[in-house]
């Protein structure tokens, strides 16, 4: 995201935000695997899952704002 912000224009920034969404999905998948393998306690996974949802909403809102302005 920081690299995209430093580029020229909204289009480049939006591209890096799209990449960030992909990275967020990867993290979500890795969390699911960690849960299935019981690598992390349930309390930790719940907290991380809540943060993933929060960040996803913020990222989605920022992308929408960029694309509509």
Structure, described:
With 69 residues, the chain is mainly α. Helix content is 84%, strand content 0%. It has 3 helices and no strands. The relative contact order is 0.14. The mean pLDDT is 86.
Helix and strand sequence: HHH
The rounded distance between the terminal residues' Cα atoms is 18 Å
Coarse shape: elongated
Overall number of structural domains: 1
The CATH C-level name is Mainly Alpha
Strand tally? 0
What structural class should be given to the helix and strand makeup? mainly alpha
The name CATH uses for the topology is de novo design (two linked rop proteins)
CATH superfamily: 23S rRNA-intervening sequence
Q: With helices defined by DSSP (H or I, 4 residues minimum), what is the helix count?
A: 3
Strand content: under 5%
Rg over C-alpha atoms, rounded to the nearest angstrom: 15 Å
List keywords for this structure.
about 0% strand; mainly alpha; 3 helices; single chain; about 70 residues; about 85% helix; de novo design (two linked rop proteins)
In short:
With 69 residues, the chain is mainly alpha-helical.
Secondary structure elements and pairings:
Elements: H1 2-5, H2 10-36, H3 42-68
Helix pairs in contact: 2-3
């Amino acid at each position: 995201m920081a690299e995209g912000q430093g580029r020229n224009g909204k289009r480049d920034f939006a591209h890096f935000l799209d990449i960030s969404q992909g990275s967020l999905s990867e993290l979500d998948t890795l969390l699911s695997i960690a849960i299935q393998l019981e690598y992390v306690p349930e309390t930790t996974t719940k907290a991380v899952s809540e943060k993933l949802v929060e960040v996803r909403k913020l990222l989605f809102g920022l992308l929408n704002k960029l694309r509509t302005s």
